[in-house]
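Same chain as my last thread, 123 residues:
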Amino acid sequence: QVQLVESGGGLVQAGGSLRLSCAASGRTFSSYAAGWFRQAPGKEREFVTGITRSGGGTYYADSVKGRFTISRDNAKNTVYLQMNSLKPEDTAVYYCAATRGYYSSASSNYDYWGQGTQVTVSS
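reply #2:
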């Protein structure tokens, strides 16, 4: 198993930037593909971005392409989400997730989840 803890959320004005971190522990993190999801009140959890075990492959939801960047540093057991040009519609709780399978846009394919970190973008 692996335990995940997100950090870096907060309040930012539209057009600003935030960097989220997901710290992993418990097992060798390089064995896991990882992803970021987000969920706003009353809405379904949605896929944001995913990354392969090595970090060599990434995938983004259309809504964040060109603005968000996922990366990982397996030596530090950490996955990052750099968020630029933030919009009010980006407001949500952001969750880090991991799977021993391949990264996917489907939340059901992920085995482990962090507790979430709140991102609020004001206009």
